[in-house]
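#dry-run=false #mode=assembly
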Amino acid sequence: MIKSELVQRIATHNPHLYQRDIENIVNAILDEIVAAMARGDRVELRGFGAFSVKHRPARTGRNPRTGEHVSVEQKSVPFFKTGKEMRERLNREPGA
Amino acid sequence: MTAAGKTVTRVDLCEAVYQKVGLSRTESAAFVELVLKEITDCLERGETVKLSSFGSFIVRSKGERIGRNPKTGTEVPISPRRVMVFKPSAILKQRINGAGNSGSQD
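#status=ok
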């Protein structure tokens, strides 16, 4: 499923709203998660999962092709941990 | 974990929808739930969810493997299972490292 399909599915449940509005809703949610992570905050959605930011210190890496040393600057990476209910739902017997 | 940052929850997402879209708070809350539900349902069916400029949620099937109880050292079989991974988009990674990256003060 891609974003436009997600919008489409939500729109079928909400015929009173324009597709445009649904798009804005989905974007508002995603933008808020991104903004929180950009601030270094954690986003915890019970039953779904939690987004956090992990800091990676600077290190010396190697170009795997040439074996050359290259310095890698410190960076922050987004991290997602699956929530408990989500984990359970992924492993439920189909049709149970 | 004792990160100085605050924790954003559903309440904050509802507030963002309320501020930006102009629905009632009750409706905004219902939409936040609906969006999460649609994504979850999709993943439960084993389908990948790709949200452009945000990232992708991918379901992976893991085969059985032998693990160890780290406390006792006894070998235990880990049953086959499905796990979900989040692959952040390049844009998201940039935003997190981008301008306005105040960093953690430690």
